[in-house]
């Protein structure tokens, strides 16, 4: 278990977890994640710590991909990721392994939390929702910065036009960096389906870019 634990910089409900850290290939595969989940579910504090360290980088990247740099009623993508981790901890004691992947549960919770964040904005449209990146402006090239903002905003709008499954697959595969097998486990579909859908989503996205 010690090999799964690294230096931490963020706390979640008494546990410290990483925001952004390198993830060894395949570390979220079911056969490697299941023993950690089982030990964490049984109350092993070290296992809970290890589980949070394993899933937090993925959750953060997923939320950032779906929300971007927008503040949703003062709730940032990282705030939503924090809520996801808290929700995972809450359901962990009652989690039962029925042959599926724990990643499926994590992704479902993350998707629900992101949807809740967008719904909270829809209920209060009096609050402005800025379309700004979550990194400070650097350098003395305002023209390039404006171009980057415009390109990022256009890409986000185009992604939002894709079907939800296409959005999830592109987010998990390209932005989060999951393998096809890990993405399949997170979405409850086959790896072959992930690859086919990813190809179709990218093809559709390229066509949409050409139209704009």
TrEMBL record:
Keyword Transcription regulation: yes
The organism's place on the tree of life at top rank: Bacteria
Keyword Mitochondrion: no
Segments forming domain RNA polymerase sigma-70 region: 55-123, 158-206
InterPro entries tied to this protein: RNA_pol_sigma-70-like, RNA_pol_sigma-70_dom, RNA_pol_sigma70_r2, RNA_pol_sigma70_r4, RNA_pol_sigma_r2, RNA_pol_sigma_r3/r4-like, WH-like_DNA-bd_sf
Keywords: DNA-binding, Sigma factor, Transcription, Transcription regulation
Similarity remark: Belongs to the sigma-70 factor family. ECF subfamily.
Protein name: RNA polymerase sigma factor SigD
Gene that specifies this protein: rpoE
């Amino acid at each position: 278990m010690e090999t799964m634990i690294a230096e931490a910089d963020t706390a979640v409900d008494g546990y410290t977890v990483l925001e952004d850290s390198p993830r060894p290939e395949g570390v979220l595969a079911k056969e490697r994640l299941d023993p950690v989940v089982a030990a964490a579910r049984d109350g092993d504090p070290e296992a809970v710590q290890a589980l949070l360290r394993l899933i937090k980088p993925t959750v953060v990247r997923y939320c950032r991909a779906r929300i971007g740099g927008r503040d949703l009623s003062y709730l940032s993508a990282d705030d939503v990721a924090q809520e996801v981790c808290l929700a995972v901890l809450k359901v962990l004691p009652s989690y039962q392994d029925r042959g599926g992947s724990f990643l499926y549960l994590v992704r479902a919770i993350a998707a629900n939390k992101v949807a809740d964040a967008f719904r909270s904005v829809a209920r209060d449209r009096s609050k402005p929702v800025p379309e700004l990146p979550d990194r400070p402006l650097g350098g003395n090239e305002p023209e390039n910065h404006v171009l980057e903002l415009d390109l990022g905003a256009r890409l986000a709008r185009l992604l939002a036009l894709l079907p939800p499954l296409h959005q999830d697959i592109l987010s998990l595969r390209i932005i989060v960096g999951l393998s096809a097998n890990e993405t399949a486990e997170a979405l409850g579909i086959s790896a072959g389906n992930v690859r086919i859908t990813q190809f179709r989503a990218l093809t559709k996205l390229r066509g949409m870019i050409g139209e704009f």
